[in-house]
Design goal:
The protein has 10 helices and no strands. It is an all-alpha fold and 198 residues long. Helix 2 packs across helix 3 and helix 3 packs antiparallel against helix 9.
Amino acid sequence: KRVLDLYTVTALEIGEGQQYDVDFENRMDVKPEEYIEMIRLKTSVLLACAVKMAAIQAGAPAEECDLLYRFGESVGLAFQLQDDMLDVYGDFETFGKKIGGDILCNKKTFMLITALEEANEEQRAALEGWLAAREYVPAEKIAAVTALYNEIGVGKRCQEKAEALNAEGFAILDSINLSEERKAVLKEYACSMLNRNV
C-alpha cells in the first residue's frame, strides 16, 4: 500500500509540474524559486519516488525511506538544471539533440528567469526583444541569447545551484544509516548525472 500511495502522489505531482510549465509560457514574471518548484514536481519527484520505492521494498525504516526521497529530490533538481545548461552549452555530438532548443522556444529555464531578473536595462531590453521576435534566424537568436547569458553570468549561477543541490543531496545521504558501500553507489550515480555530457 505504501508503494501504491507513493506512486499515486507522484503521478499527481508530475501532472501538476507539467501544468506549471505550461503556465510559465505566458508569464514574464516567473521567479527562480517557482521554477525550482516546477522542476521538483515535473522531474525530481520521479527519481525521488524510484529511490524511496526501492527502500520500501528493501524493508528500510520509514525515516530512512523519507530521507532517501529527499536525496532523490535534490539530485533530481541538480539533474534538471544540468540539462538546462547542456541545452545551451552542450556539444551536439555528445548531447544527442540540437543545442539551443530552449532558447528558440522561449522556454522559462532557470537561466532565462535569472537573466531577466539580473539583467541591466540594456540587457533586459535585448532579451525581451529576442523573446518577442516572431521572425529571426535561429542560429542568430541562439548566439545572441547565449552571449547575454554569458554577460550576465547565469550559466555559472546555474552550475553553482546544481552543485549546491547535489551537495545537499549528499549531506542527506550521509545522515542515513546505510553502509558506505551502498552510499557510494548512490553518490556515483548522482555524480554521473551532474557531470554528464549526454
